[in-house]
Structures are given as C-alpha cells and as structure tokens.
Design a protein that fits this description.
The protein is mainly α. The protein has 13 helices and no strands.
C-alpha cells in the first residue's frame, strides 16, 4: 500500500513539476517516490517472494516506510531508503550465492547502483546526480531479468563479454559523473546505456516472439519499444551531456524512466503480479490501448522538450499519467473478471 501511494503521489508530483497541476509540497520528491518508493518496493517485494525468506520482506517494508516518511517530510526518509537499498543488495547477494549466474550478477550490480544513488541522495547530492544511478539500477535489474528469461536462446560468448564491458563503462561513467568530470561521465553513461539497448535489441528473444500471438506478442512488443526508448535516452545523454534541469534533462530521464521502465512494467505485469500478489491477472488485448497511449504521450513530451515548447511537454506528461492509470484500471478489471467466475466454478484455479 505505501508503494502504491508512492506511485500515485509521485505521478501527481511529476505533473506539478511540469506545471500541469498546481504546486504540491512533495513535488521535489518526485524522483525518489517513483524510483525508491514505488519501484524499490515492487522489485524488492518480487525478490523477497523469489527468495522465500521472511526477513527479506523487511526490505520492501523499509522502502514503503521511506515513501511514507518522504510524503510526511521527515528527514529520516532518505536514511530509510539507504537502509532499504543496502538490504536489497544483501537479498541479491544471497540469491547470487544460491545461483551464481550472469543474470543474477547483473541484477546484483543493479542493486549496487541503487545503493550508490540512495547514498548520494542521503548525503544531500543534487537529484540530477543520483538519478543516473537510479537509472542504472532499473536498467541492470531489467537486463538481468531478460537474460534469465532468455536462456532458451544461446548468446555467443563474445557478445556476453561485450555486455559485461558495457556495464563496466556504465559504472565508470556514473562514478566519473559524481566526482571529477560530471559532463564526461554523463556522456559515457549515456553511450553505455545506448549500447546496452542495442545489445538487447540484437539478442533478446523478443525479436522472435513478437511474431507470436496473445500475451507472448504483447510482452515482446512492450520489450522492443522499451528498448527503443532506452536507446533514445542513452543517445540524448551522450549528445547533450550533463543537464541539471530543464527540457533536455526532462527528455534524457523520461525516455528511460517512462519509455523504457514502464514499458517493461506493462509487459511483465501479467507474469509478475500473480506471483507477487497471488491474484490472477488475465491478458486482454485491451492492454495495447494504455501501451499505445504511453508511447504517444512520451513522444509528445519529448517533442516539447526538444522544441523547448512547454505546452506539448505538459500535454505529454498528462497523457503518460493517463496511460499508467488506464493500465492499472485494465489490470484490476482483468483480475476481477478472472477471479469472480472461478470462485464458484473452479475455486482451485489459479495462475502460478
């Protein structure tokens, strides 16, 4: 529930930041609420379920408490987020100990990036510095999950080595951006992200499954369009370098956080939600509506950013929020329609 509240109020804060709604007290916490309050809670909850350990559930609880503290304006919120991030790293390292593999190593690296971003945030560094570490966390977590799900497709050894090199460049860029050369580091991180997107477009099984039907095709479509937005965000960071605020900063981050991350959420929700919440979620072609709306809104927003036009930027942000709300509505309706008839007809039927 705190994670869901962080999503709703984080989206509202985002609208306030672009001037689409009136000012709100927590507008400056938009990034922290979305990345750590919502996504940190969601990802750590999913990993706690995977690990099957009760202490692991303290991690999403800490993220949720951090979100509540942020909304209440408590100074301890940043410390709670840092503790939660370190807890998530411990969970990933435990999973890595159980399954020493490339995908788990990549996801552990993502958790390390989250610790770096949470640490910078706790130390009072500017949000534009911590935001790239947060982006690294989300990108590497998703890349690791895609490697795990792509085991049916053999990836050449040299291609795997290339991915590891890209991740190393990403971390070097993040460290340099937070220390000696912020502009150079941002450009290096952007090039690494664009290269990772190209790697995913080349080796992800979605390039084949997009020719399937039903849920499989929908997931593949979400993945491929999301990779396109990740590539765009990396290119924007590589070309324009360090941006601390303004339209170009907005374009750099939201191509990744909205275009890439929410495409992944839309695509994986029918798989993750039943496992995490224990609720059946049936795929429906109606899910293409929110996905198309998400991409349309983001395209309008990025046009407004690059054209320095606040009107399209605000409109795009509103459309993005509407797309996320519509997807949530479609998902809830799907769960309700799936659950209602089975309770009387087949009480034991349930998605695993």
């Amino acid at each position: 529930m705190p994670g869901a509240a962080a999503l709703v109020l984080g989206l509202w804060a985002g609208l306030a930041r672009v001037g689409a709604v009136g000012p709100v007290d927590h507008a400056a916490s938009h990034g922290g609420l979305m990345v750590m309050g919502f996504l940190g809670t969601l990802i750590s909850l999913e990993r706690a379920v995977a690990l099957g350990s009760r202490p692991a559930y303290l991690v999403p609880a800490a993220f949720g408490l951090g979100a509540v503290g942020t909304l209440l304006g408590l100074p301890q919120a940043a410390g709670l987020f840092l503790v939660a991030a370190m807890g998530l790293l411990v969970v990933f390292l435990r999973l890595l100990d159980l399954d020493f593999s490339l995908h788990m190593t990549v996801m552990s690296a993502g958790a390390l990036a989250l610790v770096g971003g949470a640490g910078l945030n706790y130390a009072g560094w500017p949000v534009h510095t911590a935001a790239w570490w947060w982006a690294g966390f989300l990108v590497l977590t998703i890349v690791g999950e895609r490697i795990e799900l792509n085991r049916v497709r053999r990836v050449p050894v040299d291609a795997t080595g290339g991915l590891v090199a890209m991740i190393a460049v990403l971390f070097v860029g993040l460290v340099v951006a937070a220390s000696v050369a912020p502009d150079l580091g941002t450009r290096a991180a952007g090039m690494a992200l664009a290269a990772i997107a190209a790697w995913l477009l080349r080796f992800d099984v979605a390039t084949r499954t997009v020719r399937s039907a039903g849920l499989t095709r929908f997931i593949a479509f979400c993945l491929l369009t999301g990779y396109g937005w990740l590539a765009a965000g990396g290119v924007l960071a590589a070309v324009y370098g360090l941006q601390v605020a303004g339209p170009l900063y907005d374009a750099q981050l939201h191509t990744i956080f909205v275009g890439f991350v929410f495409s992944m959420i839309f695509g994986h929700a029918p798989v993750i939600m039943p496992a995490v919440l224990g609720l059946p979620l049936r795929y429906t072609p109606l899910a293409y509506g929110p996905l198309a709306l998400l991409h349309l809104g983001l395209a309008i927003r990025i046009y407004g950013d690059l054209a320095m036009a606040p009107g399209p930027r605000q409109l795009g942000a509103v459309v993005n929020v509407a797309a996320i709300a519509l997807f949530a509505l479609v998902s809830v309706a799907s769960m309700w329609l799936r659950a209602s008839p089975t309770r009387s007809a087949r009480p034991t039927a349930r998605l695993s």
